[in-house]
Specification:
With about 220 residues, the protein is mostly helical. The protein is about 75% helix and about 0% strand. The chain has 6 helices and no strands. The longest helix has about 50 residues, at about 170-215.
Length: about 220
């Protein structure tokens, strides 16, 4: 019977336990937990092997034609899988990053205006997106390790001028998003300046009236 690496590791851990009558309850519990884990892993491996054999029968592949770990076919398939995972993770990261930027922009300067409940919900959504980005970043870097390519960091994802965003359709979308956000902030700042101008005019007018009243009183 062929055992998976995980099964071999668990069996090696089990072999370290002795059958001595002086075994403590804690040791017995640890052994039982390992046995349960080994049974679960063996069951999963058996199901996977069953799926493989079913596929081989459907495609009329004989056992002798199976790829070995060091074969060219295995290497190419492994790299093709890693490339697909890397591309999928990259696409999801860019989408999540854009969503996170939009939500963060909505909060900037509006926390006291959109209500406590909505603010709390947006903050939770931002945290959830951040956790999803952590997962996709891990998948991307694991695939990059297989492909022998550089890993990426949070810093690279957060800056649209990094190579992660270059020569990509998402880069154009991100640039458009940034322009929209910059325009929105500019409009808000212009509105704030107009409001400040009104307050300043009222202040000057009130000061002038107070000064005139003081001169007349003298």
């Amino acid at each position: 019977m062929c055992y998976s690496d995980e099964e071999k590791d668990l069996q090696a851990e089990l072999n370290q336990f002795s059958d001595s009558p002086n075994t403590t309850s804690a040791t017995a519990q640890s052994k039982n937990e390992l046995l349960k884990k080994l049974k679960a892993v063996s069951k999963r491996v058996a199901k996977l092997l069953e799926n493989v054999e079913r596929t081989e029968r459907a495609m009329q592949i004989v056992v002798e034609d199976r790829w070995t770990l060091g074969s060219v076919e295995f290497y190419e398939a492994k790299h093709s899988k890693a490339r697909k995972e890397q591309q999928d993770a990259s696409s999801k990261l860019k989408s999540l990053m854009t969503s996170r930027a939009i939500m963060s922009d909505q909060l900037r300067g509006h926390e006291g205006k959109i209500g406590h409940k909505l603010t709390a919900n947006v903050k939770k959504a931002i945290q959830k997106v951040g956790r999803s980005m952590d997962d996709q970043l891990r998948i991307y870097n694991e695939a990059s390790l297989v492909l022998e390519e550089p890993e990426i960091t949070w810093s690279q994802i957060s800056h649209p001028v990094s190579t992660f965003w270059s020569n990509d359709e998402a880069q154009a979308e991100f640039d458009i998003f940034q322009e929209i956000m910059n325009k929105r902030r500019a409009e808000e700042e212009l509105h704030m300046i107009e409001e400040e101008e009104v307050r300043l005019e009222d202040y000057i007018e009130n000061k002038c009236k107070a000064l005139e009243s003081a001169i007349i009183a003298e």
